């Protein structure tokens, strides 16, 4: 992963191991330093690279960076319910669903709910005792 930062945004490039080819981005935005909270985002544009573990590895490293280097208390994110791979990934790495924002997104003329997820530092530490 490669790194870029500003006052409220931290971005990493997600690259394929073998070729170092850029396959996506992930990071934190809406970084509230006073409350030690930031919003996680990820996008893997190359569909052929999805499902190969890059997202999980990237999110796990990003969370380590967030909790250890940025001193976050909480990482949060929003995801559409029909993004089953995303929901499964976030729950697998420890995020808990905190709520549903009803009919929050309009896509192709259809309204969709949005799931809100959060992961606290102590929850992350319990999953990674050596970190």
Question: What report would you give on this structure?
Answer:
The mean pLDDT is 91. This protein starts with a strand and ends with a helix. Helix content is 24%, strand content 44%. The chain has a seven-stranded mixed sheet with strand order 1-2-3-4-5-7-6. The protein has 131 residues and is of the alpha+beta class. The longest helix is centred in the middle third of the chain and has 16 residues. Strand 4, helix 1 and strand 5 form a beta-alpha-beta unit. It comes from bioreactor metagenome.
Which helices and strands appear, and what pairs or packs with what?
Elements: E1 2-5, E2 10-15, E3 22-32, E4 37-44, H1 54-69, E5 74-79, H2 84-92, E6 96-107, E7 110-120, H3 121-127
Parallel strand pairs: 4-5
Antiparallel strand pairs: 1-2, 2-3, 3-4, 5-7, 6-7
Pfam families: Acetyltransf_3 (PF13302)
GO molecular function: acyltransferase activity, transferring groups other than amino-acyl groups
Domain N-acetyltransferase: 1-122
Which properties best describe this structure?
single chain; Aminopeptidase; Acyl_CoA_acyltransferase; N-acetyltransferase domain-containing protein; seven-stranded mixed β-sheet; 131 residues; acyltransferase activity, transferring groups other than amino-acyl groups; 3 helices; GNAT_dom; alpha+beta
**Nearest-angstrom radius of gyration?**
15 Å
Low-confidence stretches at least 5 residues in length (pLDDT < 50)? Answer: none
Mean pLDDT across every amino acid position: 91
Number of helices: 3
Q: What's the count of strands?
A: 7
The fourth-level CATH homologous superfamily is: Gcn5-related N-acetyltransferase (GNAT)
- Give the helix level as a range of percent: 10-25%
Question: Would you identify the CATH architecture?
Answer: 3-Layer(aba) Sandwich
The major pleated sheet works out as: 7 strands, mixed
CA-based shape: globular
Number of domains: 1
Strand/helix succession: EEEEHEHEEH
- CATH topology category name: Aminopeptidase
CATH domain class: Alpha Beta
């Amino acid at each position: 992963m490669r790194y870029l930062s500003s006052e409220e945004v931290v971005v990493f490039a997600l690259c394929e191991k073998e070729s170092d080819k850029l396959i996506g981005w992930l990071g934190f935005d809406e970084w509230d330093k006073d409350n030690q909270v930031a919003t996680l985002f990820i996008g893997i544009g190359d569909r052929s690279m999805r499902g190969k573990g890059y997202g999980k590895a990237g999110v796990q490293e990003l969370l380590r960076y967030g909790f250890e280097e940025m001193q976050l208390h909480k990482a949060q994110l929003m995801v559409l319910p029909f993004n089953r791979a995303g929901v499964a990934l976030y729950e697998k790495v420890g995020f808990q669903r905190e709520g549903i924002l009803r009919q929050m997104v309009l896509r192709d003329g259809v309204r969709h709910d949005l799931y809100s997820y959060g992961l606290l530092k102590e929850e992350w530490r319990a999953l990674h005792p050596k970190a």
